[in-house]
Design a protein that fits this description.
The complex is a heterodimer of chains A (about 200) and B (about 240). With about 200 residues, chain A is of the alpha+beta class. Chain A has a single domain, classed as Sortase (Sortase, Chain: A, Beta Barrel), CATH 2.40.260.10. Helices cover about 15% and strands about 35% of the residues of chain A. Chain A is built from four helices and eight strands. An eight-stranded mixed beta barrel of chain A has the order 1-2-3-4-7-8-6-5. Chain B is α+β, with helices and mostly antiparallel strands and about 240 residues long. Helices cover about 20% and strands about 25% of the residues of chain B. The N and C termini of chain B lie far apart (about 65 Å). Chain B has two domains: about 190 residues, Sandwich (Immunoglobulin-like); about 35 residues, no CATH class. Chain B has a six-stranded antiparallel β-sheet, with helices on one face. A four-stranded antiparallel β-sheet of chain B has the order 6-5-8-9, with no helix packed on it. The chains are: A alpha+beta (about 200), B alpha+beta (about 240). The interface between A and B is large, with 75 and 62 residues.
């Protein structure tokens, strides 16, 4: 009766199976920015059994960053066959890691958007402008809202990426935004670093 | 052999964790199986898992719910290279008060156990240490693994265990730590998969030296517009792309 808990398992399973091509793998903007929805975003919630997340809060549905004028619905992301996090197939969309935390619950809610498409800025082009103190508002599918405040930003190399520091669980509610930064490796077809924006719920006065 | 005092192997592991020493396989450890070795972090991983450990998930050895440490929390993050049989661990507990206690060689484990069920430890990690309420344990271990605990078949419960088993079914494994006050476990949680490696969130269209600087200029202007004029530009981008 709680589809939310099933969906997280389903999304994870789909993510593991899906071999979604990462955005810059072949450098071909045309087919990568085609309006094909990502596999995980479109997957129907199939039935799944045992889950430890019976009390999981509702999944996030929309993010708003007032200072950047950004307001976007979220698509589900899983883990690709490479082990990496999937990224939105469409550089204009923002995704969330469906196997991670949820607003209002423990663990980080991880939101991901492209810095750029093959031809210009993408949805998270200005996320690197965020600084501590900036607000990020997340609305959940059940209408719940959490206002987060940026606490710090950090850049990490994509080689030797500190998975623990970015995706590792936290005992309390937290939010992390990820996009690219640093030099673009044209041979590899991807940026060499990730910008990670860490945010915590706004403390209620 | 339940005892709150540390065995020699525990001291060895603790020393290895603290000093970054290399423990030769099998040295000082009881049992016939070769024990894990403290190793450097490998250059790559095949998978990663995280655990949000809480006191309300404890199951005792009889399979019944048991009390954990009230108000305590724990996070366990594991990065695995199953080709090299290496597991790196980063463990943080808050409010879990030593002394640790377990019949295994340490009291901090990965058990093969579904949520709501008990199960044997397959991996034993150095117990978190630190001054104050928050304690940590981190490092990397290379198998073959032992737990120092004899299973029903008389073999060490880590014997024959392979990290690929975690990758095949992470939800079938839990992580916990046991103390004298909460011997069934102070905090516990199930493993969930998290991504490995960087996130490929760029296609290079804004990268310097992309050949067409006009795009960069246009992009900057568009971004500025979005900031000043609100959602309109971004909304259009979104709908055009969707």
């Amino acid at each position: 009766m709680r589809p939310a808990s099933r969906r997280i398992v389903t999304a994870l399973a789909v993510g593991l199976l899906a071999s979604l091509t990462a955005c810059a793998g072949d450098g071909s903007g045309a087919d990568l920015s085609a309006p094909g929805p990502s596999a995980s975003a479109e997957s129907p919630p199939a039935s799944a059994d045992a889950t430890p997340l019976a009390a999981a809060p509702a999944p996030p549905a929309r993010v708003r960053i007032p200072r950047l004028g950004l307001a976007e619905d979220l698509v589900d992301l899983g883990i690709a066959a490479t082990g990496e996090l999937e990224v939105p197939a469409d550089p204009a969309r923002v995704g969330w890691f469906a196997g991670g935390g949820r607003p209002g619950g423990p663990g980080p809610t991880v939101l991901v958007g492209h810095l750029d498409s093959a031809t210009g800025p993408a949805v998270f082009a200005r996320v690197p402008d965020l600084v501590p103190g900036d607000e990020i508002r997340v609305r959940s599918a059940d209408g719940g809202r959490v206002v987060y405040v940026v606490t710090r930003v950090a850049d990490f190399p994509q080689q030797g990426f500190p998975t623990e520091a970015v995706f590792g669980s936290t005992p309390t509610d937290s939010l992390r935004l990820i996009t690219c930064t640093g030099p673009y490796d044209r041979a590899a077809g991807r940026y060499t670093e990730n910008r990670v924006v860490y945010a915590e719920p706004h403390s209620v006065p | 052999m339940p005892s709150p005092s540390r065995t020699p192997s525990q001291r060895l592991l603790a020393a290895a964790a603290a000093g970054g020493l290399t423990v030769a396989a099998g040295v000082g450890l009881a049992g016939p199986a070769a024990a894990e070795t403290e190793v450097d972090r490998p250059s790559s991983f095949t998978s990663a898992f995280t655990v949000n450990a809480t006191p309300d998930t404890i199951i005792d050895t009889e399979g019944n719910p048991a009390e954990g440490a009230p108000g305590a929390t724990g996070t366990f993050t594991f990065m695995i290279n199953s080709d090299e049989e290496i597991i790196c661990y980063e463990i943080t507990t808050t409010g879990v008060e030593p002394p640790y206690e377990s019949p295994a060689k340490t009291a901090t484990h990965v058990h093969e156990a579904n949520a709501g069920e008990g199960g044997p430890p397959r991996l034993a990690f150095p117990n978190p240490t630190g001054s104050g309420d928050t304690r940590t344990s981190s490092g990397c271990l290379q198998g073959p693994f032992t737990t120092g605990l004899e299973g029903e078949d008389g073999a060490d419960t880590g014997e024959g265990f392979s990290l690929a088993q975690i990758e095949a079914n992470p939800a079938g494994f839990s992580a916990d730590t046991h103390t004298a006050e909460f011997p069934a476990g102070a905090v516990r949680g199930q493993l969930t998969a998290i991504p490995v490696g960087g996130v490929d969130t760029g296609m290079g269209g804004m990268a310097a030296g992309n050949g067409d600087q006009a795009w960069v200029a246009a992009g900057t202007a568009a971004a500025g517009l979005a900031a000043v004029g609100g959602l309109l530009v971004w909304r259009r981008r979104a709908s055009a792309g969707a």
